[in-house]
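Let us practice reading a record.
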Amino acid sequence: MTETTPYDVDRARFSRQALARLVLCDHAVDVADSARGLVATRHDPDTGPGGRVSQALQLIELAERALVSAVIYERERGASWADIARYLGIDPSEAEARFTANLALWDTAFEVPYQLDDTGRKRVPQLPTAAYDPAWACTQLDRWARLQRLGIDDEQAVSSGLVMAALEEEGCLGVEEG
């Protein structure tokens, strides 16, 4: 597909490492928000039998997705399979076998960032949303971090540490706060 979208220009400002980090941040937010749902007890009587197990299972699924994103990010920043395997407690060959398909999908999504749906009229992004539209992701993730007080009063707690493409910018300079 040769047609471009406005997101292509924004995405080009980011290195693949930065895009992978944004995806990891986005998935970590999902894990944190899901875990938060298991803390309060006030509505336990309204939850059917087994309901909290369902929430805990969803948390595990989200954490697995975050793990895949972490591996992709670490590979993008140059970590070896031995480095990754050490933290997983497995052999490097096992780590590579476990995550090769995920890395292949990640690589392919850069070659073909979107595909047309069955009608041929709507573009379906192949990259995760945070990588497809990184300017939006920076705004949302910085806002989430600020509300959680992760960076205390840092307005760009997420975006300030990203490695930008070719340009030696820091963070998401020029991204409008909304």
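A brief commentary: Residues 7-161 form one domain.
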